């Protein structure tokens, strides 16, 4: 069994060394046969210098500009040979040894799982709400209204009432792609990431395609990953605009707008 890891970097000098070191320690500890691809989206800080120090251990692909998440990940996906693909953000860190092995074992024990996503722990120790119900245009509009109780209504309708202390597997509509384990056979059936989406919601789109292909997306809280959560879209207005147009494309593509009921019927 071989694992292919795909990591994107973009001005990630604060996080990438911690990410790679903890990842390789975990993989070596678990005796997992692996390959690591790091695709750099035109970093202008010290990220490239840091990556050059790992050249013997990882496959580094340097791009001349920020090509977004889908195109860049697909470059590595096309080169990967592993039976399982681990998508990992550069601002993550493996907390416990044999974390990745636990994800792989879980996937091997249930062939219906198309994506397994661990619990993401923020740097303040709290659990990140990294899983939600599929969005609608109405929910997105409500969340932009600067009135507290209206926003709370929107959040309630897209949220699950899971206990963060549980160790059970939970089926969810989608999980953010900060850490995904995906069997390669699922990608072969579902296809690559949709390159018409530059940055987001490529994760929502891919999860919905997973469900449409009769696989399941699951959140696995007994496995934990530290996530520093850079929130790129909040810092870069161009990426925020790209996210908006990505949402419009997503709703048109899947032909639903104000209710998830049509989608849920297709998932059954």
Radius of gyration over alpha carbons?
A: 18 Å
How confident overall, as mean pLDDT? 92
**Structural class computed from helices and strand pairing:** alpha/beta
Strand residues, percent: 15-25%
CATH class: Alpha Beta
Oligomer: single chain
User: What is the CATH architecture descriptor?
Assistant: Alpha-Beta Complex
Sheet with most strands: strand arrangement: 3-2-1-4-10
How would you characterize the largest beta sheet?
A: 5 strands, mixed
Helix segment tally? 11
Inertia-based shape: globular
Number of strands: 11
Short description:
Helices cover 40% and strands 24% of the residues. It is an alpha/beta fold and 268 residues long.
Spell out the blueprint of helices and strands:
Layout: E1 2-9, H1 16-29, E2 33-41, H2 47-52, E3 59-63, H3 70-79, E4 84-89, E5 92-94, H4 99-109, E6 113-121, E7 131-132, H5 137-144, H6 148-158, E8 170-171, E9 174-175, E10 179-183, H7 184-190, H8 202-212, E11 216-227, H9 232-235, H10 237-254, H11 261-267
Parallel strand pairs: 1-2, 1-4, 2-3, 6-11
Antiparallel strand pairs: 4-10, 5-11, 7-9, 8-11
Helix pairs in contact: 5-6
């Amino acid at each position: 069994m071989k694992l292919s890891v795909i990591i994107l970097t973009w001005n990630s000098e604060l996080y990438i060394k911690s990410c790679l070191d903890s990842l390789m320690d975990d993989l070596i500890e678990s005796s997992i046969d692996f390959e690591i691809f790091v695709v750099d989206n035109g970093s202008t800080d010290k990220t490239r210098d840091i990556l050059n120090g790992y050249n013997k251990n990882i496959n580094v692909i340097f791009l001349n500009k920020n090509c977004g998440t889908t195109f860049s990940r697909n470059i590595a996906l096309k080169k990967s040979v592993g039976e399982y693909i681990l998508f990992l953000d550069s601002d993550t860190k493996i907390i416990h040894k044999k974390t990745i092995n636990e994800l792989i074992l879980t996937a091997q024990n249930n062939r219906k799982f198309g994506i397994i996503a661990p619990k993401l722990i923020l740097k303040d120790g709290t659990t990140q709400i990294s899983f939600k119900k599929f969005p609608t245009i109405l929910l997105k509009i409500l969340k932009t209204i600067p009135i507290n109780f209206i926003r709370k209504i929107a959040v309630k309708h897209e949220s699950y009432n899971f206990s963060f202390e549980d160790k059970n597997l939970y089926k969810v509509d989608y999980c953010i792609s900060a850490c995904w384990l995906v069997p390669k056979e699922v990608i072969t059936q579902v296809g690559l990431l949709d390159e018409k989406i530059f940055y987001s919601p490529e994760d929502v789109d891919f999860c919905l395609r997973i469900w449409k292909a009769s696989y399941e997306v699951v959140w696995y809280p007994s496995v934990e990953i530290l996530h520093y959560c850079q929130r790129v879209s909040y810092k870069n207005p161009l990426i925020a605009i790209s996210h908006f147009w990505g949402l419009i494309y997503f709703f048109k593509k899947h032909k639903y707008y104000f209710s998830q009921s049509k989608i849920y019927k297709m998932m059954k």
